[in-house]
């Protein structure tokens, strides 16, 4: 197992990374709104019409009714998928729920459609983060779980979130296939981790990867946090 550190010489300037991700998040938000207000509403309308048709046409042939029910269930699956996509594009209620609960909800969604078990620890996390950092952590975990589902063939994934007086610490590990360290710089782009690297850069953080073929994959991320300013009335 060898360690690969993010190479500062390959990074965008911090201000540019933050700007690019702010633009990307705004685009995600708008796309989520558009999907919800147009495509999802159209699908819901069609589902209600089909449900009404089946309920009030008692003279339908059994084979036709069975076929319509099958189409109705397929339509319902599409509705759930669109809702899930909207939530992934713009996490619902993340400000109200807070980071830890939002991560637990995200992990639950991934476990429903993957073959690995996720163990998540956050009991040592007490930091009061701004929304930029909260969303950055959420996106990093989202990308790590996506990579695990697509590439790792892992059975166990471990995540921990903690902080000390100055730094936030995010640790990820899995017992999957691992990667060939000889990729070095190409490792980030090869498995789609360049976005994580740039997010960490935008937070003035550090990223380290430990991996080897057959030895799983580990990532450690640290970045400074700034507590919210108190408002005195």
From TrEMBL:
One of its GO terms (molecular function) is protein histidine kinase activity. It comes from the Bacteria. GO terms for biological process: phosphorelay signal transduction system. Keywords: ATP-binding, Kinase, Nucleotide-binding, Transferase, Two-component regulatory system. Residues 137-227 form the Histidine kinase domain. Transmembrane segments: none annotated. CDD domains: HATPase_UhpB-NarQ-NarX-like (cd16917). Its EC number is 2.7.13.3. Coiled coil: none annotated. InterPro entries: HATPase_C_sf, HATPase_dom, His_kinase_dom, Sensor_HK_TwoCompSys. The keyword Iron does not apply. Pfam families: HATPase_c. PANTHER family: NITRATE/NITRITE SENSOR PROTEIN NARX-RELATED, SENSOR HISTIDINE KINASE COMP. This is Two-component sensor histidine kinase.
